Structures are given as C-alpha cells and as structure tokens.
Amino acid sequence: MLLKRLQGGPLASNCYILADDHKNAVVIDPGAEPHTILKEIEDQNLKVEWIILTHGHVDHIGAVEEVKNSTGAKVAIHEKDAKMLVSSQENLSFYMGHSITQPPADKELKGIEVINVGELTLEIIWTPGHTPGSICVYIEEINTLFTGDTVFMDSVGRTDLPKGSWHELKKSLRKIFLKFSEDVVLYPG
C-alpha cells in the first residue's frame, strides 16, 4: 500500500494520495499545486478512481479540476459543502483576492457511506463544525483517520470562518473520540 502526504499552497494544506497494492488510488483534498500531485500519480503509475474532499474551502479544493481532468477520477464532497465547489464566495477564495471555482461533484455524500477504491474501504464520517459538510475518512485496514480540518495538528479545526460552528465541532469531536480507540492514526488537513 502507498500513503503519500503532499503539502502545498499558501496555507500549507495537506493532500493525501493512497493506493492499494494494485495501484488503485484515491486523492484526498487536492488543495494546490496540481503539477506536484500529478507528478506523484504519474511516478507511482497510479489509477486514481476518486477525489474525496473533506470540506469545501479553497485550500482543500484548489487543484480538483486539473487532477480530475488528468486522471478521470470522480469527485465526492458532502452535500452540505457541494455549493462551495462552484462558488468563490462560498469557498472563500473571493475574499483572498481570487475567484477559484471547480466543476460540480460527481457524488454528493450524505455522511455515513463507504467508498471502495480497489482493495481499500473508505468509511465516510460526517463531522460538521469547521464547515457544515466537513467529513473524516476512515480506513480500517490501516486504522487511519483523515480528518481534514476537523482536527489540526495539536489542535482542533477553526470555527471562526463563515458557517463554522463550535457547538457542532464539539459534537463531531465527541463522535470521533467515542468511535475510535487511542491507537487510531490521525492525518489532519
């Protein structure tokens, strides 16, 4: 199995590439620097089936179109953040002096579903708070949880941005802590 973390963009957001032993892959949060992401995909000879977005802020969606067009992958985002792909005001890029939009999602997630990528099983867990449609992605085979911005390194996600909710984030954190044992490996956004 392959697990690669790429950090990019002005906010140093994390993008993750995962692949099973047969090179079937998923890209989580391609936020910036599509050339770096695509080079890694090409170097590893991966077949990307899905692009999964943990939420819709610009630093997590900025490279979606290029990665999707180059790989043919399908894009999934929670239904409550789906509008953020197509609106620069919703994804906050407008307020940073840009107007970044992406194609609409191929799949709008509801919050409790499973996406299979080759031999990998990705459990989608709805964790609102940072945004209304924030999700985490759990992979049981490696006891790993990709948290997006629900959990930061040494902290929790911000709730001071538009549509953030500290009340909802606390409930989501409680859900994570009750569901997973202490040995789960967390990969933040």
Give your account of this protein's structure.
The structure is a single chain. The protein is an alpha/beta fold. It is 21% helix and 34% strand. The strands form three sheets. The chain has a six-stranded mixed β-sheet, covered by helices on one side. A five-stranded mixed β-sheet has the order 7-8-9-10-13, with no helix packed on it. A two-stranded antiparallel sheet has the order 11-12. The mean pLDDT is 93.
Helix content: 10-25%
Q: Could you tell me the radius of gyration in angstroms?
A: 15 Å
Instruction: Quote the average pLDDT.
Output: 93
Order of SSEs: EEEHEHHEHEEEEEEEHE
- Report the total helices: 5
Low-pLDDT parts are: none
Strand percentage lies at 25-35%
Structural class: alpha/beta
What assembly state would you assign to the polypeptide chains in this entry?
single chain
Main β-sheet description: 6 strands, mixed
End-to-end distance, in Å?
A: 21 Å
Which shape, going by the Cα principal axes?
Answer: globular
Number of beta strands: 13
- Main β-sheet, spatial strand arrangement: 1-2-3-4-5-6
